[in-house]
């Protein structure tokens, strides 16, 4: 499962939370809600956990949607992806833990990512894209595990030019907790002065942390951002109030200046850490489009039908479906 590993003893370390300049004690965030992701099947049939199901959108803002895909150990010809489909008004972020994934879009972006890499697609005014396992994974089968996150764009940026960032595994920023017990892979944003490689349109932080069995992580966190902790695998506790969390559960944390997470004694705890400054703008979402008003949604559908979101390239890849 650990996508990128490193000896934490060799890495830069995060600071322990310290009192503010006026002497105010550091304030660890408490848990506002804990939810369990329902499990289902996406599109052609890969297993997903819908991490944000049942959580008020205001608590998630600026994040919209989070799927954990797998982990699944596919047999030959079982891996499935999506066919070509459109998006407008937000960004899709795909982070891969095990296996490989191919992406291609109508704006010229795309490529294959492997373990530890991230594809960051800014749909902006519109793209068509396809997300599918590569042919050799389809043929052989094998382990597949990843996440896809949807990040909203502010109203002023919804119709920007589409963009694509391929963030290879060796570009992720690695840092350690103050006690060396946790490896943090910072994909985007700022964490205690460290910067992730992903360029974002609204201030967010996205990281994958692995806590060693029994480790406790005290993580400085932007006070103006929300804080979401999703357990990818393992169990432990989260928040000042030490609420139990296990695989497939999401904790939304209340205000404060740092996060406290602890792993259970028996095995590591892998968590996804998400924080963003809320946009506080109206959200009109339907299927693959996320806009601010219903009229903008109707316009998105019309533009898609008229081919204004792009067309499938002549050399566009196709999903690998079977033995034929
Ligand atoms: Mn998509």
What are the main properties of this structure?
single chain, 324 residues, mainly beta, Jelly Rolls, seven-stranded antiparallel β-sheet, 26 strands, globular, binds manganese (II) ion
Topology:
Blueprint: E1 31-36, E2 39-42, E3 46-50, H1 57-60, E4 63-74, E5 85-87, E6 90-98, E7 101-105, E8 110-113, E9 118-122, E10 127-132, H2 135-140, E11 142-152, E12 163-167, E13 173-176, E14 182-188, E15 190-191, E16 194-195, E17 204-211, E18 216-220, E19 227-233, E20 235-238, E21 243-246, E22 249-253, E23 258-263, E24 269-276, E25 284-286, E26 289-291, H3 294-305
Antiparallel strand pairs: 1-22, 2-3, 3-4, 4-11, 5-10, 6-9, 6-11, 7-8, 7-10, 9-12, 13-14, 14-17, 15-16, 17-24, 18-23, 19-22, 19-24, 20-21, 20-23, 25-26
Manganese (II) ion (MN) is lined by residues 85, 87, 92, 129, 131.
Q: Give the helix/strand class.
A: mainly beta
Bound molecules: manganese (II) ion
Q: What distance separates the N and C termini?
A: 32 Å
> Whole-number average pLDDT?
92
Order of helices and strands: EEEHEEEEEEEHEEEEEEEEEEEEEEEEH
Low-confidence stretches: none
Main sheet specs: 7 strands, antiparallel
The CATH first-level class comes to Mainly Beta
Overall body shape: globular
